[in-house]
Automatic annotation (TrEMBL):
Source domain of life: Bacteria
Entry's Gene Ontology BP terms: Mo-molybdopterin cofactor biosynthetic process
Protein name: Molybdopterin-guanine dinucleotide biosynthesis protein B
Lineage per the UniProt record: Bacteria, Pseudomonadati, Thermodesulfobacteriota, Desulfobacteria, Desulfobacterales
Domain Molybdopterin-guanine dinucleotide biosynthesis protein B (MobB) residue range list: 4-133
GO molecular function, one term: GTP binding
CDD domains in the record: MobB (cd03116)
NCBIfam families: mobB
Length: 163
């Protein structure tokens, strides 16, 4: 199973923007990257009237849609815990979750003091690093939002030593 890292932060802190910059850097370094996005308010990929929706309505526990070069699956899982999701990414080198700040996975938090008063995970023992453009005394390594290469180096050194 791949190692798991959570990119966390409060709403509108820049998690997705950071991942849009970080994923290509990790890919250029030869890594296969899986992403799990936490949607605490639920989501619906299955549109009413489509065959996959009809299959789910009929009681299927899992439905996969396949087309040339890609698949999508909707499957009942016991919980939204990362532990239950990691097996779906067994062919990846690294699994990065966006969100899951209450999960016990190692975390890198992105914090924007102009948007929020305090970081979300300062007291979390699984906090490994902070990304913030304002210097902070946080007790973990800190990176600027623009220093994506250094963030990638840190991730590889911590999760994939020897690569």
């Amino acid at each position: 199973m791949p190692p798991v890292l959570s990119i966390v932060g409060k709403s509108e802190s820049g998690k997705t923007t950071l991942l849009e910059k970080l994923i290509p850097v990790l890919k250029r370094r030869g890594l296969r990257i899986g992403i799990v996005k936490h949607a605490h308010h639920g989501f619906d990929m299955d549109r009413k009237g489509k065959d996959s929706h009809r299959h789910r309505q009929a009681g299927a526990d899992a439905v996969m849609i396949a087309s040339p070069g890609q698949i999508a699956m909707i499957k009942d899982v016991p919980s939204e815990s990362l532990n239950d999701l990691v097996p779906f990414f067994s062919d990846m080198d690294l699994l990065i979750s966006e969100g899951f700040k209450r999960d016990r996975a190692p975390k890198i938090e992105i914090f924007r003091p102009e948007r929020h008063r305090q970081p979300a995970c300062l007291d979390d023992e699984n906090l490994m690093a902070m990304i913030c453009d304002t210097p902070m005394a946080v007790g973990v390594p800190q990176f600027s939002t623009s220093d994506v290469e250094a963030i990638a180096d840190f991730i590889i050194d911590r999760f994939l030593p020897g690569r």
